[in-house]
Amino acid sequence: MNVLFDPDIPEDLKEELLKTIEEEKIGEICKICGANTLYVAIIDKIIDVKCYECGYSYLEIELSEE
Ligand SMILES: [Zn+2]
Asked: For residue 27, how far is its CA from the centre of ligand 1 (angstroms)?
């Protein structure tokens, strides 16, 4: 899948997120609508990986801040 990042996501998180998305084996297209783009949003400290087209959420990651 192509991955679009919310502009608020810190640059140094992106590589790690791409790795995590890869490990989830989401596949090449959305199982709901068949789109091939993921959108990575950030809300407070939660990363939400969802389909860019239909908004189906594939993955939520809580950021720990130490
Ligand atoms: Zn979709």
From this structure: 12
This prediction has a pTM of 0.89
Q: Can you give the residue range of the structural domain that contains 50?
A: 2-62
Q: What is the pLDDT of residues 35-63, one digit of tens each?
A: 999 999 999 899 999 999 999 999 999 98
Q: Ligand 1 centroid to 64 CA: how many Å?
A: 28
Q: How many domains does the chain contain in total?
A: 1
Residues 6 or more apart whose Cβ sits within 8 Å of residue 42: 6, 8, 9, 48
Distance (angstroms) between ligand 1 centre and the Cα of 37 equals 8
